[in-house]
Amino acid sequence: MVISRRAFVHAATAAMTMPVIIPSRVLGQGAPSKKITLGCIGAGVHGMGVNIANFLNIDDVRIVAVCDVQRSRMEKAKKRVDDAYQNTDCKAFQDFRQIISDKSIDAVVISTPDHWHITMALMALEAGKDVFCEKPPKYISECFALEACAKKHQAVFQTALEDRSTPHYHKMIEWCRNGALGDVQRIEVTLPELAILPPPAKDVPIPAGVDYNLFSGPAPLIPFQNQYLQSNGWRAVRNFGTGSILDWGGHMFDTAQLCANALDQVPVEVSGKGRIPTNSLTDIPVEYDADLTYSNGVIINIKHGGTGIKIYGTKGWVGNDKWLGQLKASDEAILKTKYTPETSKYRQIASSEHKNFVACVKSREKTTYPVETMHSIHLGLHAADISIRLGRKVKWDAKKNEFIDDAEANKLATAPAPRDWQKEG
Hints:
- It contains 17 helices and 15 strands.
- It has helices spanning 5-12, 24-27, 45-56, 71-85, 97-100, 117-126, 140-152, 167-177, 212-216, 231-234, 243-247, 249-260, 332-336, 353-363, 373-390, 407-413, 421-424; strands at 36-41, 61-67, 91-93, 107-110, 130-134, 157-160, 184-191, 269-275, 287-293, 299-304, 309-313, 316-320, 328-329, 394-397, 402-403.
- The strands form two sheets. Strands 13-12-11-7-10-9-8-14-15 form a nine-stranded mixed sheet.
- The chain has 425 residues and is of the alpha/beta class.
- It has two domains: 5-163 and 357-371, Rossmann fold, CATH 3.40.50; 167-196 and 241-347 and 378-413, Dihydrodipicolinate Reductase, domain 2, CATH 3.30.360.10.
């Protein structure tokens, strides 16, 4: 089915066929006493403002190359890195394959639109790199190809999320795991409303300095629109993005699932409804309301209109109204409840995703968000999107990794054969 050998082959063939390369970290370049070399792919708002900015502040790493299909962004990224290191050594490319093939680079940071995440990650892993990759995956099936590849190469992989390193969300999980709310029954998550873009314009020229073939990559090469180069534009177009359900959803939904604490940490049944605009470039749900039911009976509801999370248990509730908002509870005593490493049933708060990744590249330990979390965090969100698109309930079999007796849902979960972007470019 969806996640079987056929799905693996489809996802894996999106990657360039490359020989297994022994990374420099094994040969001494990345030894604990040396700096880890990074190549950063994608220099948009998040790539530059979050990932490049944070890695520049970590002493154990050196960004040695940057890449963006938009030349102006590539040049800005190079300047930022050069200014930080006070030299002109940073390499700059429009074609990410030059970073992938560079044997001097230990790890790759992927900050691209969603449709590129897993294909680039597979190529980097096959080239012997460790990988720090933005979420979400474009399709459910991609995650299984990714996990198999990372394990094959014994690579360090970090799904780029910060919530497990954020006190607000760590505390929520800790209170749930230690019984402060009693038995968790229901969790409500709100996510931002997606931009409704205008109808497509005709004959829009591709701006100078933009490699649109490389931007599109494995996705169909549809007529160019200026909105595709904007983060609130491509996210609203299914050819490149997955909308706020998958994009923002990964944050609070990860916390919600850890609070639910179901055995397989993925839902068994999902029922959603929503609205997809007409006469618009936006072709992803902008309004939605979905219930995800877990094996232990907990229900997580996701709905458009906010960035908050609220957890209800038999002894009370806790939550906030917006991202990093002030914590509230049914009883102030819940908020004052603290645990020590010896008394807590939940792990201690992790360091930031960037620092954790660097530490794990050196130690070869698992990251806070290892490769398997790319699937476990996003499966339910993909299922909600699929339920909305089909207009009915879907059920998931965690053992078989497929929707139960549902060819339509399984087809939507499976990555199609990629466009031959390397031949067309």
